[in-house]
């Protein structure tokens, strides 16, 4: 076994480290107490959050399809467009 063939171990994700688990635990406990104390306020905002989610999902939920230039029209479709332009339809 050659000395240069060793692959260094991959670093674990941040949330899998002991610090990440501790921070996430404190965040969950804090979120529980904040929501518990302000339950009425949180439920009062729920309809607005659903309405706000609609445009955000529209903007960020489509996965950027069609923006990378890989979606090209077929030759038949381009010919159809050219024919409709000549006929005065487009």
Automatic annotation (TrEMBL):
Residue ranges, compositional bias (Basic and acidic residues): 80-90
Region of interest (Disordered), ranges: 67-90
Keyword Transmembrane helix: yes
Keywords in alphabetical order: Membrane, Transmembrane, Transmembrane helix
Annotated transmembrane regions: 13-35, 42-61
Alphabetical list of InterPro entries matching this protein: DUF2933 (IPR021682)
Recorded superkingdom: Bacteria
Keyword tRNA processing: no
Protein name from the UniProt record: DUF2933 domain-containing protein
